[in-house]
Amino acid sequence: MNISVIIFSYNEACNIKGVIDTAFDVMNRLATSFEIIVVDDGSTDDTANVVTPYLQKPEHFRYIKHQKNAGIGIALRTGYDAAKKEFVCAIPGDGQFDVRELLSIKPFGNQNFYSFYRPQTNYSFYRSVLNQANRQFNRLLLGIKLKDVNWIKVYRKEQLLFVAPELKSSVIESEICAKLIKAGARPIELPSVYHERKTGLSKGGSWKTLRKVLLEMYTLFMVTEKFNKRY
Q: Whole-prediction pTM value?
């Protein structure tokens, strides 16, 4: 199995080293060929210095830094575009996903993709309500019945090229999944433990992030509808 692991990160200097080290360990056990791509979304902390030693392994490691913070969606698109291997997975640099869970995946064809889901989260009431609203939107209007569209996925690079993601916020995952499901792909869902952060604050529930998501919901619907007319 050959795979690109994208680690998207914003001001996670205190967490990202552990994520990178675990990713290397897992890939050495899982993959015949792999690359780890850190997408630094405009960090202003010490992230660049933390990742510099890994640049001595250019055959397995790349570092891409945005000049300014652009948000999760753009970071994901940067990583997905840069990925060169047959399989592609994006994980956060905050350590809340245990990379060792990827050891359970197996090679798959275009008719499938992996979708990890969290039976439990530590979301605030506010973010939990928004997450539930997003789930209902996905289910009723996009036909996505995934247990957790906003958690870790493993796609084939060929699938990402096929769906050609257009959105710029974290709802890009809803766009990708909706298009793949419409085209006949079926998710393989696996449970995943949502770990507490060791340090730092979550950025996923910030008003800036949520505002971008809300503004893109209509665009998400229109983009997927346009895609649906092809099937």
A: 0.90
